[in-house]
Amino acid sequence: MHYLKAVARCLLDGVSRAPSHYRDIRRHHSLAQERDAAFRAYRNHPFLGLHIGAEFYVLENWFNTDLEPQKPGIYYIDANQPLPFPSHSFSFVFSEHMIEHISLLAGVRFFAECRRVLKPSGVIRIATPNLRNIVALLSNHDEDSLKYLDWALEFSRLPRDPFPKAPLVVNNFFRSWGHQFIYEPETMKIALQEAGFGEITQMPVGVSRHAPLVGLERHGNTIGDWVNEFETMVFEAVAP
Hints:
- By secondary structure, this protein is α/β, with parallel strands linked by helices.
- It has two domains: about 45-130 and about 185-240, Vaccinia Virus protein VP39 (Rossmann fold, 3-Layer(aba) Sandwich), CATH 3.40.50; about 130-180, no CATH class.
- It is built from eight helices and seven strands; from the N terminus they run H-E-E-E-E-H-E-H-H-H-H-E-H-H-E.
- It has helices at about 1-40, 105-115, 130-135, 145-155, 165-175, 185-195, 220-225, 225-230, and strands spanning about 50, 65, 75, 90-95, 120-130, 200-205, 230-240.
- It has a seven-stranded mixed beta sheet.
- Strand 4, helix 2 and strand 5 form a beta-alpha-beta unit.
- Helix 4 (about 145-155) packs across helix 5.
- The radius of gyration is 20 Å and the shape is globular.
- The N and C termini lie far apart (about 60 Å).
- The mean pLDDT is about 95.
């Protein structure tokens, strides 16, 4: 009897959600058509760069995309799905604070798709939180770590007393903002290697050996530059 009731609840839930699901499908189909039309025009651009996870930052001369486009000039892409572009379409791919929002396996598939849409010798630049820096908050008591803890407690409105700061901040970081998998440098290198990239290099925020990739990061506009530099690691890699 309990099983039948559970099945009935699932069916009712499915029926109640069907209109919303249908509206989402229609909306994403419309957004995909808009994106495809924009890309057909963009393919003639002298600079070919794909920006994935733009949020509301439109990078000039880039093809800006996001799961939920927030403004004109940003087009729909779901990073869990194959990228909707022909192979060898772009010279550069840039993604900032997006890869941690999908699983590790989805991340490796995403990197493989990035390699596919890059031209030979094209470059990917990935900015994402550094797991080492976050976990180190549990044991580090230097000035920067303490400053970050105070900022994080206020930013996320976490309780201050009587609990220790670091466990609250670390747990919140793993569970909030839709985070799925937080990388540290070694895992990031392996994920990029598994996707077929070479010449994998860790870079400071805002710094690159490639002029079009210098000063791209915008996450500091949201959380503050010093916080972004504390949290973030950046990797670049080259497609074969």
